[in-house]
Design goal:
2 domains; single chain; Rossmann fold; 8-stranded mixed sheet; alpha/beta; 6-stranded parallel sheet; binds uridine-5'-diphosphate-glucose; 41% helix
């Protein structure tokens, strides 16, 4: 199938390279020329395992990138993978979606054949049919159902494992208005739907939109519940990991997403939970449980710093922060809990020396005024430190040694696997 993808960030680039790999002809339409040049040169514009080799193999043949929206005219279906950021008040900012839909509608004005426009970005119920569709109609001069159709197909890939998640998902959700659109999307995903472990969910557009938010809200709330229980476990002197491992054996609960500690960050959970809460309030509903999930999440970094302060006088102390990315396997620092830890340590007068295997450049670039020191290894961050905290569970932290520390105190926010005997004080955030 000939497919165009608007927006070539984490999702658009991954989806494009994977669809090319599955035998489709794909063109990425992207406003950032550096990204376009990278893809056409066979290079991955982002760091994701398995992406570089797929782009290298298909660039120039089954995969192309362009800044020109007219290239959608040679395709049958367009996937919108545009950003849906958070506004200052937490609500969903649809400006990039509106702008992309306008440009796409303009291009489609001269198309004679049928065209299916699929929203893959995370958007609140009603957005596809009440915001995107009217813009397409207005700009193209074609009524929806009269040559142009819209559908919604949310994406569930995780950063760090994006390629594998896309190619072997738990489910593919197709929210459509017509049988023809459903059939076209089943064809697009045919090789993926052959996986025995992949469920196909066929539903209406509004339900597809909400499934994505419900999924993320559930997972984020699960981690917050696990952290609430973890904090209670800590008060009782019990090990939350042992407790929750046993709880997870109940298959109604499952053992996944049961790691308590510093909480959830990243480009999705915080913004999507915020958008759903703001949207619910707009509809006249108070989302009290989601409010509580955010409150618990926001407290964890402060609890970690308080725990360290029980053992180290933070004023003027040299504190090593191990890990800056929001989770291991990525250099993404958006809403990383590690940055909150750094902020609270600085507030309390500590001198921070931070180490991360891949995220330091992003912190330097995005927080140029942050008064911290960067180390080029965990060992050098720990050298001479009066205390340390683990903020991201990078596997390499399992091999830490603490000989160089001035005071061997470690507070662990992520339950890494270390030899506690080497430390004077080892405290887990929830164990
Ligand atoms: N990152 C994830 O792990 C993930 C997973 C599932 C769903 N999502 C959702 O998918 C959507 C995209 O997320 P992302 O992480 O890929 O975002 P991103 O910011 O990484 O990428 C968006 C891309 O769109 C480009 N763009 C912006 N306006 C444009 C326009 N008018 N025309 C063409 N290109 C334009 C930007 O330059 C950027 O490269 C969001 O709704 C997000 O919530 C993200
Ligand atoms: O047991 C756990 C699991 C996760 N986390 C934290 O939760 C956050 C999110 O982790 P994860 O879900 O693995 O990463 P994302 O790449 O943000 O993926 C989420 O957000 C994406 C964008 O919407 C969705 O597509 C994915 O399905 C959804 O898992 C990170 O800060 C993790 O450290 C925990 O603290 N404990």
């Amino acid at each position: 199938m000939n497919v165009s993808i608007i927006g070539s960030g984490y999702v658009g680039t991954t989806v494009a390279a994977c669809l090319a790999d599955l035998g489709h002809e794909v063109v990425n339409v992207e406003i950032d020329e550096d990204i376009v040049d990278a893809i056409n040169a066979g290079e991955a514009p982002i760091h994701e395992s398995g992406l570089e080799e797929r782009i290298a193999e298909h660039a120039g043949t089954a995969l192309r990138a362009t800044t020109d929206y007219d290239e959608v005219l040679d395709t049958d279906v367009t996937l919108l993978c545009l950003p849906t950021p958070q506004s200052d008040d937490g609500s969903l900012d649809l400006a990039p979606m509106r702008a992309g839909a306008e440009m796409l509608g303009d291009a489609l004005a001269v198309k004679d054949d049928d065209h299916l426009v699929v929203v893959k970005s995370t958007v609140l119920p009603g957005t596809t049919e009440e915001v995107v569709a009217p813009i397409l109609e207005e700009q193209s001069g074609t009524a929806i159902g009269d040559g142009i159709d819209v559908a919604m197909n949310p994406e569930f890939l995780r950063m760090g494992t994006a390629v594998q998640d896309f190619l072997e998902p738990d489910k593919v959700v197709l929210g459509t208005r017509t049988d023809a659109a459903a059939e076209q999307l089943r064809d697009l995903y045919a090789p993926i739907l052959e996986n025995d472990s992949t469920h196909l969910v066929e539903t209406d557009v509004r339900e597809a939109e909400l499934i994505k938010y419900a999924n993320n809200a559930f997972l984020a709330s699960k981690v917050s519940l696990v952290n609430d229980l973890g904090n209670i476990a800590k008060e009782y002197g019990a090990d939350a990991y042992e407790v929750l491992e046993a709880v997870g054996l109940d298959d109604r609960i499952s053992e996944r997403f049961m790691r308590s500690g510093l909480g959830w960050g990243g480009s999705c959970f915080p913004k999507d939970v915020a958008a759903l809460r703001a949207g619910a309030r707009e509809q006249g509903y108070e989302p009290e449980l989601l409010d509580a999930a955010v409150a618990v999440n926001d407290e964890q970094p402060r609890r970690l710093v308080d725990l360290l302060a029980d053992h180290v006088d933070l004023e003027g102390a040299r504190i090593a922060v191990l890990g800056l990315s929001f989770k291991p396997g990525t250099d993404d620092i958006r809403k990383s809990r590690a940055l909150d830890v750094v902020e609270y340590l600085r507030e309390r007068g500590a001198a921070v020396v931070a180490y991360d295997p891949v995220a330091v450049d992003n912190v330097r670039e995005q927080y140029p005024d942050l008064e911290i020191e960067y180390a080029d290894s965990a060992a050098s961050a720990l050298e001479g430190a009066n205390g340390a905290v683990v903020a991201t569970d990078w596997p390499e932290f399992d091999d830490l040694t603490f000989d160089g520390m001035a005071k061997r105190v470690l507070v662990d926010g992520r339950r890494i696997d270390i030899d506690e005997e080497e430390l004077e004080v080892y405290e887990g955030l929830t164990w």
